[in-house]
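Record type: monomer structure entry
Structure origin: computed from sequence
Chain ID: A
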Amino acid sequence: MRRAAARLRPWFCGLPCGEMRLPAARGGAGRAEGGCPVCREEVGSFREEEAGPRRGGAPASLEEAIAAAARILLTARAPFVYGLARSATETARRAAALAAALGGGIDVEAPPGARADRIALQTFGLPGATFGEIRNRADLVLLWRCDPRATHPHLLAGAPRTPLQPPGTRRVILLPPAAEPPSRARADLLLAAIPGSDLEVALALRAMAAGRRPAGETIGGVPAAAVRQAADLLRAARYAAILWDTAATGGPDGPAVASALTLLARDLNAAGRCAARPLGGGGNVAGAATAILGATGSPGAVGFGSGRPRFAPGEYDAGRILGEALCDALLLVGARGPLPATLSRRPGGAPRIVALGPRLPAGAAEPDVFIPTGLPGLSEEGEAMRADGVPVRLRATLLTRRPAEREVLAALEQAVAAGRGSAVA
């Protein structure tokens, strides 16, 4: 008898995604249909391998692998925990507890733009809204270097409507992604800004929305008249929304661009309603950062070397720790990579690596210990958080013989505590 295809609501993109269908396949999810490209790639790459945990490249039992991982972490002087973007929120809580027990550091794997968005949020706040509110209420949307309508058509589907007002007509102002030809964009107003001019255009748009008129006939390659028209449309909107992708804030001007868009939304709220919302770093970046925030008071880049959590972005962020190979032991939890090549050129030898997750990160050689786990939201239950802060319940659609990430971390935390206790005795 042929098994029916399984259905799931994927979460790996961090956005409200369409339903996916998984044909019955032995040893994995098979060729998934539906969803978005990010979710299809994540689900399609999961394989229920026959091979279990490995230690030094050789097969090992789960108990042997956990014991070896605990020894590596206990003997390290500067251990670092990294990953968690595609892990469940409970896994991030346990990872923070383990980093504290080791006296090491911890950070969440995220694109550079996600860090820029965090800086803007911490500095100015965020006049945010859920994606559902934006879909139902916004009559004008500014898409800044992003256009999720192709991959997530229901994100902005339908005309806006509230219980107290009749249906309206949504308008779209689009500043297209740098790689997308402007001629293919679908928008009421297209701002074809040249790459690298985002900050200039954002500052001019904010100035014009406030009634000022910057000098010049073009701004970032865009006619000043078009920027002025966009500002007028934003001011006239009943409910405006500004959405941007992490690619728009990933450059050196990223924090300034995110801040300018956030302040533009704040200014527009003086006379109307405007929401600002980054599309996020994908997966459970928001949930992992929130879990670490609840445990330490900071959303990431936290060190425990002094015996208490210390938030130090310039010292404990993954870009510096991994880029300069400052750790001598690296615990990867659900990391996807790629890892920087500088890790293998660390003075005094490359760090010892313990990896656990559905698969090895891209660019990673055989680690000292590898423990394959289930994939949250496919073969492992749990909770996550969308980019707009909405909690998502993760269900196990496929059966697996692999342990869950949180179970491995719990066992590893116990082994570390036992090893430290025996050393003290």
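Annotation 1: Residues 405-424 form the longest helix (20 residues).
Annotation 2: The first strand starts at residue 6 and ends at 8.
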